[in-house]
Design goal:
The protein has 107 residues and is an alpha/beta fold. Helix content is 28%, strand content 35%. The protein has three helices and eight strands; from the N terminus they run E-E-E-E-H-E-H-E-E-E-H. The strands form three sheets. Strands 1-2-3 form a three-stranded antiparallel sheet, with no helix packed on it. Strands 5-4-6 form a three-stranded parallel sheet. A two-stranded antiparallel sheet has the order 7-8. Helix 2 (64-73) runs parallel beside helix 3. It is globular and about 30 Å long.
């Protein structure tokens, strides 16, 4: 049995249940956003991640600008997998803006 409960749940509340006989293992679902300018590679990575239990490749972007635009209006994922070299763009240049958009206030 595989049960993924991610609808409307926060990152800390989402979990995947794997059951084998009477044993159950609970693993948190990790939401991943991919950023890569190579469509084929991006699709391949999303497929590979999708086969892994507990990982959801929720969004894919072809540029850092597209990612930043989305982050400006929506809450981000648990993980952003960012290509470093994207044609004339450098993914590392997007790290600071990503961090500023995803910064969480101190408790």
């Amino acid at each position: 049995m595989l049960n993924i409960d991610a609808a409307g749940a926060s990152a800390s509340n989402r979990k995947t249940t794997f059951a084998s006989g009477s044993n159950q293992i609970f693993a948190p679902n990790v939401r991943v956003w991919l950023v890569d300018d190579n469509d084929q590679l991006r699709t391949l990575i999303a497929e590979v991640l999708g086969r892994q239990g507990g990982i959801e490749c929720a969004r894919q972007f072809s540029s850092p600008d597209a990612l930043l635009s989305e982050l400006a209006s929506k809450s981000g994922p648990d993980v952003i997998l960012l290509d470093v070299q994207m044609g004339d763009r450098n993914g590392l240049d997007a790290v600071r803006p990503i961090k500023s958009l995803t910064a969480r206030p101190a408790c």
